[in-house]
Amino acid sequence: MNDRSVDENTPLILDEFSTRQSKSTSLLSSKSVGHKYQVYDAAHQFLRSVFNVGGLTICVVEATVITQSRLSRCFPRQFPSKKRCDAAVALMREGGVHVVADIDGMAGLYLLRVITGSTSCTSGSILANGVPVEAGVFRKAVGVISDEGTPLPNLTVEENINFVVSMRTRITGNSRNLLVKAACVLTELDHRKTTNSLSPSEDFRLRLAMEIVRDPPVIVAYYPFDNLSLSDAAECSAILKRISTILEKTIIISSKTLATYLFEITDTVLLFGLNGQVLYSGETTLMALYYKSLHASITSYFSGFDHLRDDLNIRSESFSPCNQLPDVTVSGGDHKNREDEPSSISMRSSYARETINETIENVDFCGDDALSLAILWGENEVDTYFYASKYYESSLRKEMLRSIAGYSFPPQDDYGVTPFTGTAVPQYSMLKPFLLWWYDALQTRREPGGVIYFCFLLIGLLVITLLVHRQPDDQGGMYNIRGIQFVLFLLTIIANIVVMDDVDRQLRLFFYQRNSGLYNTFCFMFVFVIRTIFLRVICLALFVPVVLFVLKMKALFLLLVGALSITHMFLHVAVHVVIPEKQLAANILRVYMTYCIIFSGFLLNLKSMPPFVGMISLLRWVYGAALAQSLRNMPFSCDGAGNTSYCYSGDAYLELEGFQNESTKQSLVVLGTMCGILILLVGVALACRS
């Protein structure tokens, strides 16, 4: 590894560990450099005693990734397959930081999916300590950090890390507390902070801590460093370097920028151009020499052929000193100022062309220079393939293949492959649903959505019960009762929509945690169903005494409200699971809600319409049952002598509207059947989606 600005002597914030080591902390007050290094050595020894030391050497051997859509299999001409990565080679040694840089992010994304074992490459191979990486097997041995919402939003840092440890291992008591504290020390986190109050840098470090407690030999960071401020991105990069230095883990970072803070800690770079073409792969220290030699060979070859050089757009002359070159990528502190600009390659290349000087007199090379050239060469396929062929034929690539051959033999003993399976004893599968329910209950208790839902039900139930109780026994009172009940059920649906506004975030969290091996689909469905029913039972139970003893109403009315709320909640989730597109799912739910309102029996007389029109409306079942419960066998006097033609008893009105056969029992059976079908649909859809 290359020793740069961040190394094993970088200070650690010891947090609570320093208070537990009284002798070591006394050295912190000393001005002696030797004493200070003793403290840091003690911290390193503490971390190395808690976590396993060592990573895996990843060899990428001529890896090609080609993706096909479902339509491309049936219509290959209209929907051709896409080559995401073409004959990539890389040697990522253990204990190093390795960056996969990509101008559009696609090639690096698909290659890292192969490296992590999430999928397989079309041709070529990926080796980990000489053992081929198999999709689905190696994934659990890799810690993956992405921008998906891994942490539980309302829990503290310590509770989030405890959640991961509890779901993955049987570690309990002091051993678990020690592991959590070590993760906080390593990532420099305050364990008392809540997730919602973390800065972007702290949020990344929490995701990292939740992965490092698994003790994986390889850590892959998909996290978009180009969306962080310069200081936050530098902090995150320094923490990753620290892990590779102290614990000797293999760190792989996917990035669309090669800013100085990232380039300085990087050991090797795999640089992609257009269509997944490899423009460079090797040590960062050799990058400048390679581009110098590339420029020299091209200029000597094309001397006297300026017109050919113009045709090929040879822009390797556009080098500039690293300390003079402005950022050509949307990264660091400039991101906020340019967040409204398009991030296409053409826009970035035009900016790069304007800012890069046409000289190679001073080549103080850094990562941004290489990425600038990759962006310029990515304007057309001619440039990209020309420079990709130059690297393909280079001695640097041949030397790398020879080095890879030395790592391509499986280890002779079991030590080299033990990180594939992990060292900690996994948690019992039967305990995972209850552990997940416990941490979900902690989060739900602090969820503001629960308060909103409670307030909606509180206001709705109080208003409906008070107004229904005060209505006169005449025709006007009868019409008011039906209107008030309809508004209550509509309010219940609106409350569900407000609470489930973040259902897509919850589903993304589920997919990420399930794919990371925390739990399976059955475990999630068990907790989801129990939580949905339990919350509504608690809310409705608070109003039972008022409804039964103060307002003299039947408890079956509350059952209808609860059944509607539960059924609509399952329907809401089912639509978002089956239709991944958030906006489309939301529009479908809005259309269905409008349909339910129109064909509920409140606005239109359903007796003159086909039966199925009202049967597929949730509001029709609860509204009809509630109306029958309130109006059946009620006389209701007429308003006056002149209104006898529109004077109905409760039974007559129910027959007129087509609700004479409605009952609470029938509606509850129908809604219960709907719930069962929706739960089954959600479970199957979640199990089938990756």
TrEMBL record:
Any one of the GO CC terms: membrane
Stretches assigned to the ABC transporter domain: 69-300
Major location (coarse): membrane
Record keywords, A-Z: Membrane, Transmembrane, Transmembrane helix, Transport
Transmembrane stretches, start-end: 451-469, 481-499, 519-549, 556-579, 585-605, 668-688
Top-level taxon of origin: Eukaryota
Protein name per Swiss-Prot or TrEMBL: ABC transporter
Species this protein is from: Trypanosoma theileri
Lineage: Eukaryota, Discoba, Euglenozoa, Kinetoplastea, Metakinetoplastina
